[in-house]
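tool_log.txt
---
The assistant was asked to compare two proteins side by side. It first ran the structure predictor on the initial sequence, then on the second. Raw inputs and outputs are pasted verbatim so the downstream comparison step can read them without reformatting.
(1)
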Amino acid sequence: MQDRCNIGLEIKHFTPGSQPKEVETLGVHRDDHYLFFILRNGSASLMVDFNEVHFAESSLYYLLPGQVHQPTRYNMGDGWFVAVDAPLIPPDYRMVFEGQLRLQQLYQLNPQQLEECHNVLTLLENKYNSNEDDAFYLPVIHSLLQSFLGMVATCYCNAIHGSRQLLRPAQLSQQFKKLLTENMRTLKSPSGYAIKLNVSESYLNEALKKTTGLSVSYWIMQEVVLEAKRLLYYSELNTKQIAHNLGYDDHTYFSRLFKRVAGSTPLEFRRHYRK
């Protein structure tokens, strides 16, 4: 992000016949910032962490920093692309965006939501493209950005939890997800996460099974193997280097673990997805 702009934000409105530079020039990659997409009409597909995501009209979607992605089909009629540096996203919003253990889902905007997002983004783009020497240029841009981010966070928060305050198991699942993302290279025991969350291991397991249907151990291994897949796909690191990167001194043990979770060896996975 810092290589392309100095205000932590990029925004582009696409109209029929136009196409973003990312689609034209970038293949498989990962970014250090958030990406938000709104598709008013047309269609598109993205490969996100080895899952195909299909966009339809009136859809909203976002990508987290670090997620490996690549456009696989693109026929956008009208839509928006917004890139945002992570420090510009308030912690409460980040909890919504980053707190889900499963891959984030498309959100179908209703006509009012779509129009509201479009209006705010139109104002944001107009200001973004105005004279940077204008008084309060940056504060106004960031204020408009916060309005958009709040609207997106509200959509996802309501979709997942309704308008009610989060129940304790859902809150705990979100807290676990944040800790897991930050600590999965050094902490791999369910008891370790339970200690950090000030709950018993059995209660943490119960909360995750209630909200996701799966155990703490399952999600730890899924996070580790997902990051391994990203490195196998995106980087040129060998299996030993990846194992060490993820906190495993014994790369043969790591390879066995990867095969058990992913169904193939690391090298088989790399050959399959790079062919």
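(2)
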Amino acid sequence: MAHPIMFDEADPILARVRELALAFPDAAEKVSHGRPAFFTTKVFAYYGGSIKVDGVYQQHDQSIMVLTEPDERKVLVAQGRCYVPAYLGPSGWVGVDLGAGTDWAEIGELLDASYRLTAGVRRVRLLDR
């Protein structure tokens, strides 16, 4: 059974995330588990996520989930706009809520860091050129 689509194609925040994520070498987009996923050979970002509270999933539809280094993750999770996502959280992923006050330069840096952790040496070399 396919997952239901959990995003709006007309979402302007998704459009901005796409612009940033698809600028990386060989980056592409697919729908995974009902949400946009940005990848090369491995996923480096998802748009949207959820947390599980008292057995109930709470959606964070306008957010990104990225893979981070453990120290950076601790700093991010300490901020109220970040969360440990269901399923991917134990593997080092963190969710960052997006909205009107989003610092897009910071989001670009988080996407860059996640890309570097997942894309492989050749693609990182292309990025550094």
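---
observation on (2): The mean pLDDT is 95. Residues 12-120 form a domain with the Aspartate Aminotransferase, domain 1 fold (CATH 3.90.1150.30).
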